[in-house]
Design goal:
The protein contains 14 helices and 20 strands. The protein is of the alpha/beta class and 506 residues long. The chain folds into 3 domains: 200 residues, Rossmann fold; 62 residues, no CATH class; 189 residues, Nucleotidyltransferase, domain 5. A hairpin with a 7-residue loop joins strand 3 and strand 4. Helix 3 packs across helix 4 and helix 12 packs across helix 14. The longest helix has 16 residues.
């Protein structure tokens, strides 16, 4: 190869790297997303479909004014301000900053190799973010109207972890959230759009389940979606855990290129994920059917074990299982309540499968102060068993301190005890509210809780009656906390985590 030809190839490669936006080749779903003129747009998509690409390319279009010939969406004929961000500063740097500006590792050579062309950037107009290595806080971008430079747009990088204050602004034209924000962050985005009549766009996979933000996007926003079928690079199919099949047919981009998702991609994904997560990964559906019942990160409520003061209150709860090895487990949970601050702690418990009542009762009676703390139980404890007596009566006979009445939700004001009903959703709402504001904590050693929490989900608007026994017992305890008792006369001290069956008294 001649030196001249080699030089031309190098120049061509350099031009493509520094003018990436010019060579953008969207899928049909991306064209539809870009051409949407709505003020509130949500792209809720599966993994690996290009949702972040879609959002950051649109950011580049609006910041630079360099819209392609096929573009029919909203246009800006002036410089604008965009705030974009993700879950935390590191993710924002590694994903959004990288996509828009180029690799953050060496800005001297990479700045301008993202979706924003190099010709639209000035290294002197780039401000670093304090405290985050290689992260950019603000950057000015050359804007063009009808191809003529008319001023500088401003791009600001933020993150959800920085709190709602970081998203406050009075003259923001566009907010772009990559991954799902909490409602308070979304509210601040809306506040910042009031003066400018600005836009908000969210691009994310609904890994937090059927949240209030997702409901708002689906019901009130212009809602876009993308699945593996929208970016398929071959004909194949995949059958999910529930029997539903997703069929993929080859899709082509605007310029005729085949999609990038293949059968091998799906096979590898299935190796790395449990079956119940595959619909989220491949179809962009809320995690497990219609979504996780609780979408809070475990770090919000998981704590290391602590000692409880004498004035705290205690309550136990049980959810009955069956004798067969395939039956629901019996779950027993212990809760402690800080009456001054209204904080509930789940500190102990167990699940057992296929055990007789005397065996389960023995495990309960081994617990410290089990003779003092009442056990809340569900209404099916009133059923008569084949060997005579109700379930509740047999536990009583085995020495378990069963509460007098079966579980009911708290009665309304001035109503009699027991009139609150046994509906599930009031307890779910109460637990969710407490997770949200820090009034429900779980010891890190209560492994049964976390195992069920990660799979606790809804389908067709109902909680799936599977792997929910420990959480059901927790709900009885939370909603039955009015029956908790004080152990002020019995000093309780909890030592390090036990090896098999609960906390041992000091």
């Amino acid at each position: 190869m001649s030196k001249e030809k080699l030089q031309l190839l190098r120049l061509k490669k350099k031009y493509i790297e520094e003018n990436k936006l010019e060579f953008y080749d969207p899928y049909p779903f991306q064209v539809k997303f870009h051409n949407d003129k709505s003020d509130r747009i949500g792209l809720v998509a599966s993994n690996q479909t290009g949702k972040t690409i879609s959002g950051t390319v649109q950011d580049a279009f609006d910041l630079t004014g360099l819209y392609p010939d096929w573009y029919k969406g909203a246009r800006y004929d002036r410089p604008i301000r965009i705030v974009c961000g993700g879950i935390n500063n590191d993710k924002t740097r590694d994903i959004l900053q990288n996509a828009l500006l180029g690799s953050p590792v060496d800005r001297s050579t990479s700045l301008g190799t993202g979706w924003i062309p190099k010709k639209c950037l000035d290294p002197k107009r780039v401000s670093l973010k304090r405290g985050v290595t290689d992260a950019i806080g603000h950057v000015m971008v050359r804007h063009h109207t009808m191809g003529i430079f008319d001023g500088w747009s401003q791009l600001t990088f933020s993150s959800y972890e920085s709190g709602k204050e970081a998203w406050m602004g009075d003259t923001i034209d566009i907010y772009h959230g990559d991954e799902e924000p909490k409602m308070e962050i979304l509210g601040q985005m809306g506040r910042g759009c009031i003066a400018t009549k600005g836009k908000i766009r969210l691009t994310y996979t609904p890994e937090n389940g059927e949240t209030d933000v997702l409901q708002k996007v689906k019901n009130e926003w212009s809602h876009h979606s993308a699945t593996f079928a929208d970016v398929a690079g071959g004909d194949c199919s995949y059958t999910f855990e529930d029997g539903e099949t997703l069929t993929l047919k080859t899709v082509h981009t605007l310029k005729g290129k085949e999609g990038h998702i293949s059968k091998a991609t799906i096979e590898n994904l299935a190796k790395d994920n449990p079956p119940w997560m595959m619909k989220t990964r491949m179809m962009g559906l809320p995690m497990i059917g219609e979504g996780l019942v609780f979408s809070y990160m475990e770090s919000v409520f998981k704590i290391e074990p602590i000692d409880f003061p004498d004035h705290f209150l205690f309550i136990d709860a049980i959810d009955f299982g069956g004798l067969a090895s395939t039956s629901h487990p019996t779950a027993f949970v212990r809760l402690c309540i800080d009456p001054a601050n209204d904080v509930i702690y789940v500190y102990d418990g167990f699940r057992v499968i296929g055990k007789e009542i005397p065996e389960i009762a023995a495990l309960i009676n081994m617990k410290p102060n089990s003779d003092i703390i009442p056990v809340i139980w569900p209404h099916d404890g009133n059923k008569t068993l084949g060997q005579g007596g109700t379930t509740k009566e047999q536990y009583l006979s085995a020495g378990v301190n069963m509460a007098d009445m079966h579980f009911t939700n708290p009665p309304e004001e001035n109503k009699v005890e027991g009139s609150g009903g046994i509906q599930i959703m009031p307890g779910i709402t109460e637990m969710s509210s407490r997770f949200n504001d820090g009034r429900l904590k779980v010891f890190s050693t209560v492994l049964d809780f976390f195992e069920e929490y990660r799979k606790y989900h809804m389908k067709d608007g109902k909680i799936v009656d599977r792997n929910d026994d420990f959480l059901a017992a927790c709900r009885y305890g939370v909603m039955g906390r009015r029956h908790a008792v004080s152990l002020i006369r019995t000093k309780i001290a909890f030592n390090q985590r036990r090896a098999g069956g609960g906390w041992m008294s000091g």
